[in-house]
Amino acid sequence: MKKAALLLLATFVAIIVFSQEEQKHKLPSVEIKNVNGIPFNTSDIDNDGDPVIISFWALWCKPCIRELNTISDVYPDWQDETGVKLYAVSIDDVRSSSKVLPFANGNDWDYEILLDPNKDFARAMNVNLIPHMFILDGEGNIVWQHTSFAEGGELEVIETVRKIAAGEELSQ
Predict the structure, then answer these.
(1) pTM of the model
(2) Which residues contact 151 (CB under 8 A, 6 or more apart)?
(3) Among 7-21, 22-36, 70-84, 135-149, whose mean pLDDT is lowest?
(4) Which domains are assigned to the chain?
(5) Which residues of 118-133 are buried (b: 16+ CB within 10 A; e: fewer)?
(6) CA–CA gap between residue 160 and residue 68 (Å, rounded)
């Protein structure tokens, strides 16, 4: 009887750990908007099996802008090589949100721009500092993240994307 109870307990614990692990690595479902004000659910972030980059940023964040401008210079090459798609999620408040699209256009950002003025998506992703970047594999699993930006940081990003696109496992 003790063995059966112990086996049942071990199974229960394994199920809980496994389900938490799955939830921890999947993208949360949060209603935000695109730059045209159209509702967008974050569970719709997809790239037909190719990697996805999600970058949280704001108009007032100089490192965020440097990071997105640096990536913008090489983004077409990244897309050709890996098929990656970048979603730039602005956490600017409602008063500043109208400036996001003109700013992105002025910088020639060819990204999907999303607005998270209440920071609901940012909270769901545990974003406390920006820039904060996440990379998803082709199945929508969060497999890599980092905060801050330093010159040359985009090289680590593309190396990670290349590994994901090639189906390689990332080292922890």
Answers:
(1) 0.84
(2) 70
(3) 7-21
(4) 28-165 (3.40.30.10)
(5) ebebbeebebeebbbb
(6) 17
Model pLDDT, residue 3: 55
How would DSSP label each residue in 83-137? --EEEEEE---HHHHTTHHHHHHHTT--SEEEE-TT-HHHHHTT--SSSEEEEE-
Give the whole-angstrom CA distance, residue 131 versus residue 6: 46
Q: CA 99 to CA 18: how far, in whole Å?
A: 43
Q: Give 37's pLDDT tier (boundaries 50, 70, 90).
A: very high
Coil vs helix vs strand at 59: coil
Tokens (6 digits) for 58: 């704001």
Residue 36 scores a pLDDT above 80: yes
| Contacting residues for 157 by C-beta, under 8 A, at least 6 apart | 53, 71, 133, 135
Residue 17 scores a pLDDT above 80: no
5: tokens are 């109870």
Chain position carrying tokens 């983004």: 75
137: closest CA among 26, 40, 29, 41? Answer: 26
